[in-house]
Write a structure and sequence with these properties.
There is one protein chain. With about 400 residues, the protein is mainly alpha-helical. The protein contains 18 helices and 4 strands. The chain is globular.
């Protein structure tokens, strides 16, 4: 009986992680809600009271309250308010899923499911590459035809590289096949964000002196991979374009460009978003600066919104969560979000010697902080779902037997 239940849980987890890597935000969120209901039913209504040391939920509560207050004094679109609440609730949903899973899924099984789902996503990514590479005329068109930023790829590579350290019992042959497939998918993604994520994982694992031997092997593997990638890129049009994108990364997110030309705006859209948000924030009154405009508010970018698929003059969120939160929830919301990331980061960093899994927790928090700067971040519906589930699980798994739980 238990084996069939365990297999069913595994199927749902793999499906959730796969959908969370390949689908659009709304589909991921709906899948998360369904998974939450299923896992809560399996746990017989038990729900850990807290996940992560410093909680995220008060930020959502504050966002709802300040939005209601803002709605009393300002005109607002109810659809924007609902969408804003759903976006801000994204971490609550997926952290909660991870917390519930600590009650129904053993850690060694959970990490295996991550690896299996990551390999499935990697295969799908390679399929997209082979299917579209012949018709792609630029690296941007090729990237648009592939998965955006499948966060599960770097974490799968790390789990495979440190499987013995993390006590993941997987056959060596299966490990090698999964690693090769995932590594090829990682290189083929042409994603600067995924590269940065992998670097963060490896740097975090490097701080533990117990893993010196393993880290040396990882470093040597990385060096070989960089050399091979260099010779591939240097004689390849896509490679040249990718290297150019890396070089221009800082310009793309800078708000100090000359915004009088359309080409500058389109080529450095993330920087223009920050520039627009800064202007909007500066003209706000003191109340809006401190408490925010509310979750129904949007960021004015002018007629250029159409170039990112939005009708009208404003967009609901930016490729920078910090500025999105600053506009919607003010200084109070932004400070709380930074405290959520910072306090949890240092709390688990001080305790990784007692629980190796905390190294993954620390790395995931660092990645969420970086993604909040470079991408829409976790406060957008469906985004960073895989990372949030893993964070919700690994941050409390060790002491779950001592944690209080409640029935809902």
């Amino acid at each position: 009986m238990w084996e069939s239940k365990d297999s069913f849980i595994g199927i749902i987890i793999v499906a959730l992680f796969t959908v969370g890597s390949i689908a659009i935000g709304s589909t991921i969120y709906i899948t998360g809600v369904i998974a939450w209901i299923i896992f809560l039913t399996i746990s017989k209504g038990r729900l850990p009271i807290k996940n992560t040391y410093f909680p995220y939920f008060p930020l959502l509560l504050y966002g709802v309250i300040i939005s209601v207050i803002a709605a009393i004094f300002n005109n607002f679109d109810i659809r924007n308010l609902v969408a804003g609440i759903i976006n801000l609730s994204n971490p609550v949903l997926f952290l909660s899923i991870g917390a519930i899973l600590t009650l129904v899924c053993a850690k060694e099984h959970f990490l295996k499911y991550v690896i299996f789902a990551g390999t499935v996503v990697a295969v799908f990514q390679l399929y997209l590459l082979t299917h579209n590479i012949s018709s792609a005329d630029s690296i941007n068109s090729l990237r648009m035809s592939m998965l955006a930023t499948p966060d599960i790829i770097p974490i799968t590579l790390v789990l495979l590289m440190y499987r013995k350290t993390l006590n993941i019992d997987i056959n060596r042959f299966i490990t090698r096949v999964a690693f090769i497939v995932t590594l090829f998918s990682f290189v083929a993604s042409f994603s600067r964000t995924l590269i940065l994520e992998l670097v963060i994982y490896i740097l975090i694992f490097s701080i533990d002196s117990r893993f010196i031997k393993r880290n040396i092997i990882v470093y040597l593997t990385l060096i070989v991979g960089v050399v091979v990638a260099y010779f591939f890129f240097i004689n390849n049009n896509f490679g040249d374009a990718f290297i150019e994108k890396i070089i221009k990364s800082s310009t793309e997110v800078s708000s100090n460009n000359d915004w009088n030309q359309l080409s500058t705006i389109l080529n450095n859209w993330r920087g223009y978003e920050v520039y627009s948000a800064t202007n909007q924030f500066n003209i706000n009154g003191m109340f809006e600066k401190i408490f925010g405009e509310g979750l129904a508010s949007q960021i004015y970018v002018g007629p250029y919104a159409i170039y990112v698929g939005v009708n009208g003059m404003s967009i609901p969120y930016l490729h920078n969560s910090y500025y999105t939160i600053l506009i919607k929830l003010g200084y109070i919301g932004l400070v709380y979000y930074i405290l959520f990331l910072g306090i949890n980061f240092f709390f688990y960093l001080k305790r990784f010697h007692h629980n190796t899994g905390y190294l993954l927790v620390v790395a995931i928090i660092a990645i969420l902080a970086v993604n909040s700067k470079l991408m829409q971040g976790a406060v957008v519906m469906g985004h960073d779902a895989v990372l949030l589930v893993a964070l919700g699980y690994l941050s409390i798994y060790k002491n779950i037997q001592q944690e209080d739980t409640s029935k809902v």
